[in-house]
């Protein structure tokens, strides 16, 4: 039974919420493992995310409750705010601590969170919670942060308070997302372009492999080091700061400087993937979904063979997609080693696709994936309509 979130707030706090905010999750459409190489990524906001209902209190405390997690907390405003274990409310506490450290005037709040992003799927549930909290505080207490300030603040919370060394793409996408637009973001300069992305008869299928992503962090750090090694080799003859400062043609000329074949492969992926993002922007803005789909498949192949961050689970999803005429393209998205794949699927064939990919995956892997349908949605904002959970 679908329950009105406003009624849930009344049930837990005995009063009505004064405001409701929403921040989406995100997927990266193309441009993987580029953010730490100074290149272009192309994320978009999706149509599910994190809801936050609030009501001020006069008790100088922040109360945190969630419909997704059993843990709740009551944190005095005037206390040293520290991370507590691995509980979900570390994210909003970190944001509040940042506001207070910046000297912003806050008041106690009763807060109820609800998210429909699958946890641990790599769709940025943490960035979504951080940004919705920061946006709400900024709105309620007229803190005068710009949207970009909120992005940087949320990334800082993730890096320093939570202790996860992420780039800025996730927070940026959920803050700046626009309906039917992908964001072509330069991770070095933070310049971005909103690219028209009308999916027409297609939607975005998100296929969660449901594989625990145990390898992701250690392998991620390994790839960062390999890219630094490649960059150092190229800098012997090229005046560059990032691998993405060159295109595929230039890389071909100078790749001999990278003597380790594995490291050369890593660099080749990065440089070519950066070029693919530019081609993808052109394809989307020209409404050429067939070409965009081809680039998705090429991206996955490169991530599988050159960058080696895929895995049998993600490959199984993409292999199935290649056999289905209702799919324009598919690829892994995120850090890899589990997490999600995405596919462009005809809307009227989604139910059939979902059933078939689940069966195919179950036969090969031994358990089922989770399959979701999404469109490209708006970034963080205030909601006026009644929200259902």
TrEMBL record:
Which residues are substrate-binding? Answer: 32-35, 220
Under the heading Gene3D superfamilies, the entry gives:
3.30.230.10, GHMP kinase, C-terminal domain (3.30.70.890)
Broadest EC class assigned to this enzyme: transferase
* A molecular function GO annotation: magnesium ion binding
Identify the residue position(s) of the site Transition state stabilizer. Answer: 26
Q: Name one GO biological process term.
A: galactose metabolic process
Catalytic site positions: 170 (proton acceptor)
Q: Per the database record, which ranges form the Galactokinase N-terminal domain?
A: 7-56
Localization per Swiss-Prot or TrEMBL: Cytoplasm
On the tree of life, the source organism's domain of life is: Bacteria
What's one Pfam family the UniProt record gives for this protein?
A: GalKase_gal_bdg
- Name the chemical reaction catalysed here: alpha-D-galactose + ATP = alpha-D-galactose 1-phosphate + ADP + H(+)
State where Mg(2+) binds: 126, 158
Q: Which GO terms describe its cellular component?
A: cytosol
Q: Where does ATP bind?
A: 66, 120-126
**Keywords for the protein's UniProt record, in alphabetical order:** ATP-binding, Carbohydrate metabolism, Cytoplasm, Galactose metabolism, Kinase, Magnesium, Metal-binding, Nucleotide-binding, Transferase
List, for all copies, the residue spans of the domain called GHMP kinase C-terminal: 280-361
State the protein's purpose.
Catalyzes the transfer of the gamma-phosphate of ATP to D-galactose to form alpha-D-galactose-1-phosphate (Gal-1-P).
Which family does the entry's similarity section mention?
Belongs to the GHMP kinase family. GalK subfamily.
- What name goes with this protein? Galactokinase
Please give the organism.
Mucilaginibacter terrigena
User: In the UniProt record, what gene is named as encoding this protein?
Assistant: galK
């Amino acid at each position: 039974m679908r329950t009105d979130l406003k009624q849930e707030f009344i049930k837990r706090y005995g009063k009505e919420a004064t405001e409701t905010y929403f921040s989406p999750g995100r997927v990266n459409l193309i441009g993987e493992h580029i953010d730490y190489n100074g290149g272009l990524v192309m994320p978009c906001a999706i149509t599910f995310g994190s809801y936050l209902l609030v009501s001020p209190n006069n008790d100088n405390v922040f109360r945190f409750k969630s419909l997704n997690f059993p843990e709740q907390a009551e944190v005095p405003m005037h206390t040293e705010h520290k991370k507590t274990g691995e509980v979900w409310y570390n994210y909003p506490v970190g944001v509040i601590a940042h506001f207070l450290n910046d000297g912003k005037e806050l008041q106690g709040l009763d807060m109820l969170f609800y998210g429909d992003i699958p946890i641990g799927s790599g769709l940025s549930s943490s960035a979504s919670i951080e940004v919705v909290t920061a946006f709400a505080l900024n709105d309620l207490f007229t803190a005068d942060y710009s949207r970009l300030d909120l992005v940087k603040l949320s990334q800082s919370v993730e890096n320093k308070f939570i202790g996860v060394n992420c780039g800025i793409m996730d927070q940026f996408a959920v803050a700046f997302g626009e309906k039917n637009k992908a964001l072509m973001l330069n991770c070095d300069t933070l310049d971005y372009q909103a690219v028209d992305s009308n999916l027409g008869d297609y939607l975005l299928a998100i296929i969660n492999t449901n594989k625990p992503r145990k390898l992701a962090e250690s392998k991620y750090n390994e790839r960062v080091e390999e890219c630094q090694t490649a960059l150092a080799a190229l800098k012997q003859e090229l005046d560059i700061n990032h691998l993405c400062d060159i295109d595929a043609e230039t890389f071909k000329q100078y790749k001999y400087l990278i003597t380790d074949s594995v490291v050369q492969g890593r660099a080749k992926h990065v440089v070519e993937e950066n070029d693919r993002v530019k081609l993808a922007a052109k394809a989307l803005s020209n409404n050429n979904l067939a070409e965009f789909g081809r680039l998705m498949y090429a991206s996955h192949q490169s991530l599988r063979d050159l960058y080696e961050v895929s895995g049998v689970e993600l490959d199984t999803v993409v292999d199935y997609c290649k056999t289905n005429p209702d799919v324009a393209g598919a690829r892994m998205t995120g850090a890899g080693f589990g997490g999600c794949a995405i596919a462009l699927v005809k809307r009227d064939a989604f139910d059939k696709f979902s059933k078939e990919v689940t069966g195919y995956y179950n036969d090969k892997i031994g358990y089922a994936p989770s399959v979701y349908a999404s469109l490209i949605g708006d970034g963080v904002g205030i909601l006026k309509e009644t929200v259902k959970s």
